[in-house]
Amino acid sequence: MTYGVIICTKCREHVQIIEVGSSKTTRCQRCNASLNTRKLRVFFTSDELEETISVRTQIQAQLSGTGTLGKSLDALAEEYFRKHQTFGNEIDEKAACLIDNRKIPKKKKADELIIGILVENNNQMNQNDLKEKALKMDVSEEQFNDIIKKLLMAGELYSPSKDIIRIV
Ligand SMILES: [Zn+2]
């Protein structure tokens, strides 16, 4: 289960936790507005409920302290984004980044990722370095080996010497 922190777009005074992807609408516990979860800006997501609660509490405190008067939620989100480091070390920066769920970029395919890494490195890399980078981008080892094999066979990549992979 992934939890997300949202702000009610109606009253703009209530921060609440939703279960990401579980239902299309949620009700603001303060003003009772029905909110379309797909259109809400998700300020934070985590699989850890406790962590999500602590972030929710901090955003609520910030919201109550500064108010949203004259500010768009986007501006508020930016403000929050700039301050997110203050939430402490246990929350990694990537997870605390804003996720605008209205336009989630489509995940690149693993083979495109691998080609992309090669292009960034002058079209040629040591296979182990390439693998290391690909694994960091959520490509599994099995996937990596399959794709390299496939691209080598397709002639899109070649191996000029042992362990070196190059774009044709
Ligand atoms: Zn509300």
Describe this structure in words.
With 168 residues, this protein is α+β, with helices and mostly antiparallel strands. The protein folds into two domains: 3-99, no CATH class; 110-167, Arc Repressor Mutant, subunit A, CATH 1.10.10. The chain is built from six helices and eight strands. The chain has a three-stranded antiparallel β-sheet. The chain has a three-stranded antiparallel β-sheet with strand order 6-8-7. A hairpin with a 7-residue loop joins β1 (3-7) and β2 (15-19). α4 (110-120) crosses α5. The longest helix is centred in the middle third of the chain and has 18 residues, at 49-66. The chain is elongated. Zinc ion binds at residues 8, 10-11, 14, 28, 30-31, 33.
Structure annotation, total helices = 6
The biggest sheet, with number of strands, parallel, antiparallel or mixed sense and barrel status, is: 3 strands, antiparallel
The number of domains is: 2
Q: Any ligands, ions or cofactors bound here, and which?
A: zinc ion
Spans where pLDDT lies below 50 across 5 or more residues:
84-105
What level of helicity do the residues show?
40-55%
**Separation of termini?**
43 Å
**Structural class assignment:** alpha+beta
State Rg: 21 Å
Order of neighbouring strands in the sheet with most strands: 2-1-5
Mean pLDDT over the full residue set: 80
Sequence of secondary-structure elements:
EEEEEHHHHEHHEE
Shape: elongated
Q: DSSP strand (E) fraction?
A: 15-25%
Count of DSSP E strands? 8
